[in-house]
# Entry
Amino acid sequence: MSDFYCDEVLSGKTAIERVRETAQVLAFRHTRPAYPVHIVVIPKVHIPSLTDFAPGDGSLLLEMLTVIREVAQQVLAEQGACRVVTNLGEYQESKHLHWHVISGERFPING
# Structure
């Protein structure tokens, strides 16, 4: 199964607009946003989902939450509100852990 975040984003094949980056975490504007503000936060290593963290991944989880908090604070200050969402199972389209920091009303779905 292909992994958009590893195969495209982290490899550099797909251009992104970085919002925040640390040694282990990348936050960037979604390449196909569903909201007026749509930022994705991913670990730079492949972890399939939130439930797949290993016992030794505590520092990575803390670093991810720190970046998510910083991005959410920025969006909150600029927009007045935001949501932070991650999906699991069938709701998770890409099987690489990622969090969405979103604000505004969802764009209409064409089709």
Observations:
- The radius of gyration is 14 Å.
- The longest helix spans residues 58-79.
- The chain has one domain: 4-103.
